[in-house]
Design a protein that fits this description.
With about 110 residues, the chain is α+β, with helices and mostly antiparallel strands. It contains two helices and six strands; from the N terminus they run E-H-E-E-E-E-H-E. The chain has one domain. Strands 1, 2, 3, 4, 5 and 6 form a six-stranded mixed sheet that branches. The radius of gyration is 15 Å and the shape is globular.
Length: about 110
């Protein structure tokens, strides 16, 4: 089914693309608001090719192609951490975007 939808990628596919130099772009779909001690909104993630031309939306599964939606900042940060990010920059305004790239591997220590 994913062959029929070349502009989408699963979480596992995203991991592979990130290892090839892609970036993960967080897009704010609806503005965030703070309720008690948590931030709520709507975000989705896209894989952006190294040259910027190839874009794929992260979907929930291979069988049911629906954009993976994050409703809380905590959920989004957990996802970013799970795919290998060490920092998270979360846009809070509708339409806001922020790029994330895997950190460079630490240089080998000589000794």
């Amino acid at each position: 089914m994913l062959e029929d939808a070349p502009n989408v990628v699963t979480e596992d596919g995203l991991r592979q693309l990130l290892a090839q130099g892609y970036s993960a772009e967080v897009v704010c779909r609806t503005a965030a608001e703070k309720r008690l001690n948590a931030w709520y909104g709507s975000w989705y993630v896209r894989a952006i090719g190294p040259a910027g031309g190839d874009e794929k939306i992260v979907v929930t599964s291979r069988n049911y192609i629906k954009a993976r939606e994050f409703k809380t900042v905590a959920g989004l940060v957990s996802f970013l951490s799970d795919i290998g990010m060490r920092t998270a920059h979360i846009p809070l305004e509708e339409g806001g975007r922020s790029l994330h790239q895997l950190p460079e591997p630490a240089p080998a220590q000589q000794g």
